[in-house]
Amino acid sequence: MLHSRHRWILLYILDYLLQNDCTGIHYADFERALLGLKTLPEKPILITIDDLTAVQGQNPVILEYFGAMKNSLVERQMKGSFAHITRPDLAQDVALQDEFRGWTEHGIALETHITPQVIQACEQAGLRFIVGIVNGRAPIRVPINTGDVLYVGRVGLGVNNDAYGAGLEIEFWREEYR
């Protein structure tokens, strides 16, 4: 899980992942695997980038940062997911919304993350995953039913907030859930 401030480290993380034969997946791939409808690659990795928004008048540099992160993923043919926060209380920029939707044609998924208090709203809206906001390293409930809303933890960049720390964190969780 990365934010726009991590754009400089994403390149190194992606290169590390590719050198170690990791394959990017989306939440939809993960869901199909949990339901027994698909097999995951040998070393799957879910790369998520948080807090993409299309609020009118926001800082254009932030959008440039997210665009650079998207380009890094696309150039390396690595799947990635952006957690798109919609703000119903703030005016949305329709042109930006259209641009973000266009990213999906390049293997980028647009997802959402919200707090566990809205599981009922997720069920009603047909959303399947809730990504933990703080230290959300909780296991997924198993067995799952087709309509379940699943709480998913997230792993940060490790204690050093660098590519080396991210690599250690990835290897730990890969071994832990083998």
Topology (SSEs and partners):
Elements lengths: L6 H13 L3 E2 L2 H8 L9 E2 L2 E5 L7 H16 L4 E5 L9 H10 L4 E4 L7 H7 L3 E3 L18 E3 L10 H14 L2
Parallel strand pairs: 1-2, 3-4, 4-5, 6-7
Helix pairs in contact: 1-3, 1-6
Q: In DSSP terms, counting alpha (H) and pi (I) runs of 4 or more, how many helices?
A: 6
Q: What string, H for helix and E for strand, traces the elements in order?
A: HEHEEHEHEHEEH
Content of β-strand: 5-15%
In which order are the strands of the major sheet placed?
3-4-5
Mean pLDDT: 77
* Ends distance: 20 Å
**Which structural class matches the secondary elements?**
alpha/beta
Radius of gyration: 16 Å
Low-confidence stretches: 133-139
Quick one: biggest sheet? 3 strands, parallel
**Net shape:** globular
Q: What features would you highlight for this structure?
A:
single chain; alpha/beta; 178 residues; two-stranded parallel sheet
Provide an overview of this structure.
The protein has 178 residues and is of the alpha/beta class. 38% of the residues lie in helices and 13% in strands. α3 links the parallel β3 and β4 (80-84). The chain starts with 6 loop residues before the first helix and ends with a helix.
Short précis:
With 178 residues, the protein is α/β, with parallel strands linked by helices. The protein is 38% helix and 13% strand.
